[in-house]
Amino acid sequence: MIRTTQDIENYIYPLSKMLNLENEPKWVILRFMINISLSLEQPYEEEKIESFDGKEYRLEQITGEGKGSEDFTKLFWDMIEVFDDKTITSKRQLEENLQKHIIRGYLILKTSLKHDSNIFEFLGQDF
Predict the structure, then answer these.
(1) What is residue 127's predicted lDDT score, i.e. its pLDDT?
(2) What pLDDT digit, counting tens, does each position of 52-101 carry?
(3) Alpha-carbon Rg of the chain, whole angstroms?
(4) Nearest CA among 21, 26, 10 for reference residue 61
(5) What are 5-61's pLDDT values in tens digits?
(6) What's the per-residue H, E or C state across 28-69?
(7) Which of 36, 38, 41, 52 is the most buried (most CB within 10 A)?
(8) What one-character-per-residue DSSP string does 63-122 give?
């Protein structure tokens, strides 16, 4: 299971609104957070989370595992191995790393954007 915090859950709707994706499922926004994290090469320290008081997601929700042409599990697995320069040997490790990158993506976005920021300008400048 991939777990989130309540802060991340509370940020999903405002972020989806900034992206004009209010009617999309939560996993679209969680994938966006993962991709933001994987787009920045700067070193980072893992956040120590005291409580995962948000929701739990399965790989099929986050990566599309088992959904044929919409299964991006291998792609995320490979991206994380390259980005973090590590070998992932189990789905549990993949889930842990996806969780870590959701948290990192959330923190990058939360600290870089204000509620009235133009996210597309932010993306154009930083990515």
Answers:
(1) 58
(2) 899 999 999 999 999 999 999 999 999 999 999 999 999 999 999 999 99
(3) 14
(4) 26
(5) 999 999 999 999 988 899 999 999 999 999 999 988 776 677 677 788 999 999 999
(6) HHHHHHHHHHHHCCCCCCCCCCCCCCCCEECHHHHCCCCCHH
(7) 36
(8) T-TTSGGG--HHHHHHHHHHHHT----SHHHHHHHHHHHHHHHHHHHHHH--TT--HHHH
- 18 three-class SS: helix
Q: Domain map of the chain by residue range? A: 2-125
Calculate the CA 117 to chain-centre distance: 20
Pairing of strands 56-57, 2-3: antiparallel
Closest CA to 119 of 108, 106, 109, 104: 109
Neighbours of 101 (CB within 10 A): 25
